[in-house]
């Protein structure tokens, strides 16, 4: 089973996670820019963060046989903080970077006017930079948030086939299904979706334009729940090809629209799993991984 996790926050995970992921067949990931759990106080802190997820994190991931790409954006929660709004002026230079495959996460947290403005502005950036867009749907009042997100997407003139609405569930999937947008589902230990619930949605809606991710971050989450979903699909009677479509070909197709997705050497279904660990040569004073930068 080859797996491409289209939404996971590896900057909050350990190298042990990379080892487990590679052993489980996770060969590629996309890391969206997101809130770090406490307020950032200036655009400079965003610049350092963006540099990390397009520089250090791909370097670290590669040592464990995992290919890493990123999406860049001002996230919905911090769009409400006037100290962070100048980040919108930083985005164009990052949206030109090779490893950046979409604008995201954008969308809504509390559905404020400030979030409206940031959402529309970043969809315009996606169009201007010819990139897909990853839309975060709010955790509260989700159905209203999805409807509002779809309205903003429609007003933006972006091709809906270049937009994924993420964190969907049984209540909201039907709202998105016939819009032309992609449907994203986050599999969590307690909240969001579970493997059995995801299987039932795949039975109902099929495998086309469906993305399954772990959205693993600094909270209670599990980067191997993509694998668990694939196994649940097989137990439920889905074929190996169905699993490969949902867990590999769909995210490759969506992010491939950026023209920057590099899966060279990873997209062979029969290729071996990722490396068990980093090369010993070149590590410093017994450090467990190679160092990046100076």
Global Rg: 18 Å
Distance between the termini: 37 Å
**What proportion strand?**
5-15%
Number of strands: 8
Q: Give the proportion of residues in helices.
A: 25-40%
In DSSP terms, counting alpha (H) and pi (I) runs of 4 or more, how many helices? 9
Low-confidence stretches are: none
Give the structural class.
alpha/beta
Strand order of the largest sheet: 1-2-3-4-5-6-7-8
Overall average pLDDT: 91
The biggest beta sheet is recorded as: 8 strands, parallel
Q: Write down the secondary-structure element order.
A: EHEHEHEHEHEHEHEHH
| Overall shape | globular
Task: Please tell me about this protein's structure.
The chain has 294 residues and is α/β, with parallel strands linked by helices. Helix content is 38%, strand content 14%. It contains 9 helices and 8 strands. It has an 8-stranded parallel β-sheet with strand order 1-2-3-4-5-6-7-8, sandwiched between helices. Helix 2 links the parallel strand 2 and strand 3. The protein is globular. The termini are far apart.
Q: Briefly, what is this?
A:
This protein has nine helices and eight strands. The chain is α/β, with parallel strands linked by helices.
Keywords:
alpha/beta, 38% helix, globular
Topology (elements, then pairings):
Elements lengths: L2 E3 L9 H9 L2 E7 L10 H20 L4 E6 L14 H8 L5 E8 L5 H16 L4 E4 L5 H15 L6 E4 L6 H5 L4 E5 L8 H11 L4 E4 L11 H11 L4 H17 L38
Parallel strand pairs: 1-2, 2-3, 3-4, 4-5, 5-6, 6-7, 7-8
